[in-house]
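Holo prediction. Input below; ligand is zinc ion.
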Amino acid sequence: MPAKCAFPTCNNTQNIDKLSFFQFPLNESKVCAQWVAVVNRKKWIPTMSSKSCEKHFDISDFYNTKKKKRLKPDAVPKHIIAPDRIEEVFELDISIILILLSIIEV
Ligand SMILES: [Zn+2]
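Structure of the complex:
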């Protein structure tokens, strides 16, 4: 089943929209907590199948290999695509990150 982007306001779907999708960095709890903070879904924890589409990252967050677009290991999504298609740049709230970190590291 094609993965839908984890951002609640984003309708991009893997294999339907010609975009790159990236798994949540579950092994990197600090980076992962920042991703979760930006996704900003209530009581939501990412799984192995959770993915974000490339639209939420800056060009500088990527590097290219011969085969495909890759994400730098410390890249964090920062563009939220609002339903009205006006992009907002998300400011990370450090208090949210700290709460998330305490959840993830249990
Ligand atoms: Zn998306």
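The pocket of zinc ion is lined by residues 5, 7, 10, 12, 52-53, 55-56 (CB under 6 Å). That is the main takeaway for now.
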